[in-house]
Amino acid sequence: MDILRAAVAVVLLGLAALLLVPGPPEKPGVTWADLIAPLAVGEPLGRGFVLSPPRRGEAHDVVYVARRSAAPSQAEGRVEIHVVDRGRWNGVPETRSFGIAWEVPPRGSSIITSPEESGAVTRLLFDAIATNDTGFTSVDSIPLTAEPAAPMIVRVLDRLASPRGKIAAITTSLALILLIALPSGPPLVALILFAISLAIRVPVIDLPFAHDQDVQRMLTGNSSLTDIATGVGLQDRHPPLYFFILHCAQWFGQSEAIGRAPAVLAGALAAPALVIASVAMVGRATAATAIAGLAVAISPQLVARSREVSGIPLYGLLLLVAAASLVAACRRATLPRRLTLAASHTLSLFTYYLAPFVVAAHAGALFWRRPTGNVARAFISGVVAGTPALILGIATLLRDWSARDVARAFPAIAWGEHNPIQMGVEMAQIAVDAFGPILLAAVLIAALVGLRSRDFATIVPALGVLATFFAVALLSPIARVQSYYFTSALPLAALLLAVVPAHVGRWTGYAWTALLIIAIGFTTAPLAAANRTIYLPDSDAFMPRFAAAIMDRPEQTVVTIAHYDKTLLAYYLARANDRSINWRNWEASAKKIIPLVKVHALRIGAASKLVAELDHIIAEGAALVIERDAVTIPEIQRRLDACEILLAAPTGRLKLCRG
To answer: Can you tell me the distance from the alpha carbon of 61 to that of 429, in angstroms, rounded to the nearest whole number?
Structure first.
């Protein structure tokens, strides 16, 4: 019987693989440059506006930005125009294939174009696209100008959104269910899930960095272990453990792939860890365990975070281990389980500043359960060993007070701010985007069923999810937290799906498994196709191109309007010189890089001083300037309008300014 199960599972996995095999790459056809003709990037659009190069947005859209420089007869202006698939947005003008609308500027924007002008500019682009729209399948299917052919992983994910992809997801689920019932099923399923996780996370991880935070963490990790433990890690607003791992990774050099590798590995381990955790918590693996693991392996939110230079995947993995070891130790307090319990809580405290809230939830669960003294001592010893990280967290919170003031005063230039309700809504949307509505509903059902039956194996991961959710929401007014931090708790949410069926009846378990299979096939797997953009060059990742041009220019001074662009530029100048850098030697460049606007230290009325500083720099000799749309201050923008554009990207420009 076991041999038959294994044979059928192999056939199903083979069928799933065949269903996902993509066809040959499509030959380049119509591009966005063709669709907007006779309009063109860099050419006058109307009313003094000029189009910047298009970029891909976060909502399966293409974004055009139209800019207008200030002049005696006109104010500066900026309009962001989004092109989405027809039917995606209600109440917007639509062509044969697309919906087109302009976006309301965020609160606190320093350059605001009137609705009348924004609508008129959008109409010009709409008319051009409508004329050239002969019928297209989606916005994603049309390449940007000079965009490379999509890699194979993108074409595989595109299959997931098709009927073939749904069948492949269902057959994979059935195969894993058959395998997990074998005597050696759980480790075998864990190995398969690890392979699937790597296959989705590893491809094309050498793409250039678009954000300075990735480079900042690389520089922090490349510091000495002493610096990481005593100061540099604190400046990066995170405990030191992840930076110790980054430090070891950079023994092999400095590159985008090496920087992302620890997060890729930690993210790929989450699905197999869920399987092992489920067995440790309830004594056996169920069909739901396999499906929950598959959901974690392919979840678009978890995959996306696993491809960044980020400690979130590692922290999420440690939360799984901490929850499982707590439940397992309470079931049977063996020495390995007690050591794992202590170590996982210590390491989680040294990985992310949200850990104290989960630790507090676990303490409450232990108080309710009242386990043996050995378990309590192991837990307390782990917390005590992690206490230095709590001190670092308090220091970071105090250090961030001035940055919070900036966020309130300049919400469109800094990262903005949210109240707890707004943050909660964003986290709920992240959960939907991670698993799909059906699977997320199943998570909520599992939590309610487990809590009602007072099942400790359900209570512990549920408390971890709730603690993370409320910590992020309630900290939002006083600390620099973001809604995507909640992704660290998503593996715990999936764990709820795995542990509940171990305590229900046979037929209820069958119904539960059927629900999860339907959810994976019809909502979760198609969502994975939404991740196609993370394997394509980010239009915001323009710094390598700018750095190459700067290397070839005679000017020795480079001004970055946003202070964080200095970090990106220094990194890519070092890469161009085949040199690694950290915070002690990152300014050792042939070019003098001057950051102008320190976003986290802005003050009302500072614009005139910044313009004077820029004028002083330029008066000493011609300077190259990197400006970015995310930091747009009208007074500075008017000064830069007189400079020559050398290179343009969708969200930034390299300019030459002379006195």
So the answer is: 18
Check whether the bond before 38 is cis (ω within 30° of 0).
Answer: yes
What residue ranges of the chain have pLDDT lower than 70? 25-28, 104-111, 145-148, 231-237, 393-417, 501-505, 588-589, 599-605
**Residue-wise pLDDT tens digits, 632-642:** 777 888 888 88
Are the C-beta atoms of 246 and 221 separated by less than 8 Å?
A: yes
The DSSP code for 232 is I
Amino acid at 597: V
Backbone torsion region of residue 60, taken as left when φ is above 0, otherwise alpha when ψ lies between -120 and 50, otherwise beta: left
Instruction: With both helix axes pointing from N to C terminus, report the angle between 373-385 and 387-399 in degrees, rounded to the nearest 10.
Output: 40
Instruction: Confirm if 527 and 295 have CB atoms less than 8 A apart.
Output: no
DSSP output for 262-304: HHHHHHHHHHHHHHHHHHHHHSS--HHHHHHHHHHHH-HHHHH
Whole-structure pTM value: 0.88
**Token output for 115:** 């609705």
Environment class of residue 206 by beta-carbon count within 10 Å: exposed (0-12), middle (13-18) or buried (19+)? exposed
Read out DSSP for 509-563? HHHHHHHHHHHIIIIIHHHHGGGGGGGS--TT--HHHHHHHHHHSS--EEEEEET
- For 48, other C-beta atoms within 10 Å of its C-beta total 19
Amino acid letter, residue 399: R
